[in-house]
Amino acid sequence: MQGTGKQKEQAIELSSPSAIYDTISQELTKVIDSTSADSSEPELKDVSQKTRSQLQELQHSLENQLSELQSNADWDTFTIAFYGETGAGKSTLIETLRILLEEPTKKATQKVFEATYSSYVDAQSALTHLQQDLEESTLKLHKLEEQLKAIDDNHEKSRRELEVEYQEIEAPILSELEKLGTSLESKEQVVRELSQKEQQLTSAVHNKRQQASLWQKLILLFKKLPEEVELTSLQNQLTEATQQVEATRQQFNAQQSKNEHIQHERAKKLDGLQRKTRDAKSELLSQKAAIKAQQQALFDEEQQLEASLEEKHAELVNSADGEIIGNGQPDFTQQTQRYDFTVNGQHFALLDVPGIEGKEGQVVHEIEKAVQTAHAVFYVTNKPVSLHLKAPCVSTWALISKAQYH
Length: 406
Known about the structure:
This protein is α/β, with parallel strands linked by helices. The chain is built from 9 helices and 4 strands; from the N terminus they run αααβααααββαβα. It has helices at about 1-15, 20-35, 40-70, 90-100, 105-210, 215-220, 225-320, 360-375, 395-405; strands spanning about 80-85, 335-345, 345-350, 375-380. A 4-stranded mixed beta sheet has the order 2-3-1-4, with helices on both faces. The longest helix has about 110 residues, at about 105-210. The protein is rod-shaped and about 205 Å long.
């Protein structure tokens, strides 16, 4: 057995680090082979066969474990696993080491963070200036609204003053028109009555002359009928009444023309007032439309900047220091995270292993694989407990074999 031990020690010394797995398997084979010698004693032979069978089962199981260990092992980089309870601070410890030792991926994310933060600050500054521009445009719109209202108020005031002015001018004209209209209607009624009487007298005279005898007709050559005398007087009255109607009508038409002229002047002044108001508002309305268009563009830009800020904020959260640190909830870390370092030419790696609290069935494979890979394991806890492995999935053989090697 001493010779075998020397051969094992010599094999380990001569082989590469990864050859330790083959050496262990070979040594176990030798032990199994040593039990295969035939014995003349039946009982010893039976015990030897049982022992060899058990050792073969052990060898098969061990070879499976060694194969898994060998596939996960990394002998070129010293690997340290941080393993323990959820919320004990292992991710915080690893994040601190990443920052202090300037781990490459951490430096890369810090550069991303710095660039994103600078862009975020610029976008925030641009948003602040844009919001100031929006406030200024709102103030300008408010002032324009006040100016437009003042123009409308002045227009309404001028219109009312113009209406009052022309009402004062129109009042006597309309009053005179009303009087002349009443007088004209009265005189026209007189003319109509006189004309009717004239027709009646003319008809009476005509009838009497037609019915007169020859003697009476001779007398009528030198003497007029009473009806004829009355008719002559009536015709004189009719002529005078007709002249009065014509004179009154001329006065009425003249007054009406005067009123139409006043109406025309008033409409002309109102139109001028309306045109002046429209011209005064036109420039202000153009300014208002331009400011509203500018304001809409500012609103659109504001929405784009706010969306950009949200995206940059999400990028900052993703690239900020401490992104690997959990929130206290179980199973925050569900996959082993590896971080490689080089310090003074020495390569080593840190493994952030999932916590053992929570749904351990989901992370048991990750924990076992990480422990098999690691050359050293730090058990992190926030409670005063004795140092021992809490999860049955941890391969004690992996720790023992690597400890023996190192």
